[in-house]
Write a structure and sequence with these properties.
Helix content: over 70%
Shape: elongated
Structural class: mainly alpha
């Protein structure tokens, strides 16, 4: 396999204050894994790469009407695989709002109706519109996926055949082939490779590494014209050094997500478009690029850590709001005006909750459940108060 790829390394578990050289290599592999996984996904379906240009909004802060409008806009105007993460987040936010609404309407219904034979029903036209748009998305996604699967297998077979051709070229025993003929055949294989199309993501790295392994064998084992080979090596080295310089510039970019995205693309160019350099230079330039990748990976991890901290702050804020709702429901209110004031406070707290921002994914559902439980408790106490008033009014009517 390519010397440039640090194979068969594993994540280190140690938390030593000073890192050994092996620890650094392991972390480099970890950073490289992130790049490779992203590139493998986007190679399989290049429309996924467009997702980086579509902002991922804080959908929990949006109303159900806004969520439906945003979903409709995405489905109508963007490639279906580019919006899959956006659609999933919109779906979660919409259903959280919808279930909360239904819980409230059910509580109101139960407070006002005592006939056990009457079942709760609530028709919400916006839910039907959401489902129609979401079904349109699913239909487009399924059609896209089915067509993609037909192409991936064919492309993989084509690339496998090209690797076999390349291998046979390197191991050639036909003495009638001149060096010029072999170089021409190599360039022909390269051109076919460039247009061979996407392959399944789980085959991406091994197929590309296999291809480059035999390209390097061609240069290392075949006695090519030294001048032609050195010129090719020189051009490839210039291109890879330019990538390294651009990578260094990206380390100073304040937009971490954008910089990491460009670094990912640089890795694709390095791997997919540029040939090998002289053997004695391969390890050094790859190590230099790997170090840049590690530094960018560390900056990205720090960025995610800050985002996680903000989510933890949002969680603390939402938990405080939930406690405030619980406290609001625990207050003893004995007048209509008093309850109207409580209802206004409740609406303000609800709005604060919806606008409080994302919380860690692992506690998102539990936080919503706690919020709905608190609101349901408040509504139950409010409904009981008005139920008692109606009962007293009815008794007074019956006395007259």
């Amino acid at each position: 396999m390519l010397e440039e790829m640090n194979d068969n390394l594993h994540e280190a578990d140690g938390q030593e204050q000073f890192e050994s050289q092996e620890d650094v290599v392991v972390k480099n592999q970890s950073a490289q894994d992130v790049i490779d996984d992203s590139n493998a996904e986007e190679n399989e379906d290049d429309s996924i790469s467009d997702k980086h240009d579509i902002p991922l909004l804080d959908y929990e802060q949006m109303s159900m009407e806004e969520l439906v409008a945003e979903l409709d806009n995405l489905v109508k105007n963007h490639k279906v695989m580019a919006i899959k993460d956006h659609v999933e987040e919109i779906r979660k936010a919409f259903m959280n709002h919808y279930h909360h609404l239904i819980d409230e309407k059910r509580d109101e219904f139960n407070a006002e109706n005592h006939d056990e034979n009457v079942e709760f029903e609530y028709h919400f036209p916006l839910k039907n519109k959401f489902e129609a748009v979401y079904d349109d998305y699913k239909s487009k996604r399924n059609n896209h996926y089915n067509q993609l699967q037909k192409n991936l297998k064919s492309n993989l077979n084509k690339r496998t055949e090209l690797i076999e051709e390349l291998k046979n070229l390197v191991d050639n025993t036909d003495e009638s082939l001149t060096i010029a003929d072999m170089f021409k055949k190599l360039n022909d294989i390269r051109e076919q490779w460039k247009s061979a199309g996407a392959i399944p993501r789980d085959k991406y790295n091994i197929v590309w590494n296999n291809y480059h392994f035999h390209v390097e064998r061609f240069y290392d084992l075949i006695h090519l014209d030294k001048e032609a080979r050195d010129q090719d090596f020189k051009l490839n080295l210039e291109q890879k050094l330019a990538i390294i310089e651009r990578g260094k510039e990206l380390l100073n970019d304040s937009d971490i997500a954008k910089a990491f995205r460009e670094l990912q693309l640089l890795h694709r160019v390095w791997k997919e478009e540029i040939g090998p350099v002289a053997r004695e230079q391969r390890e050094a330039i790859w190590n230099e690029f790997s170090e840049i990748t590690k530094q960018m990976h560390d900056k990205r991890e720090a960025f995610f850590a800050n985002a996680k901290a903000r989510e933890e702050d949002n969680l603390a804020n939402k938990n405080n709001i939930i406690r405030a709702i619980d406290a609001l429901g625990d207050e003893e209110i004995s007048s209509h005006n008093g309850w109207q004031n409580q209802i206004k406070k409740m609406e303000a707290l609800r709005e604060q909750f919806f606008k409080a921002g994302r919380v860690p994914a692992e506690v998102n559902e539990a936080t919503w459940d706690a919020f709905k439980t608190a609101v349901r408790g408040f509504n139950a106490k409010k409904n009981n108060f008005y139920k008692e008033i109606k009962h007293e009014q009815q008794e007074n009517l019956n006395k007259n």
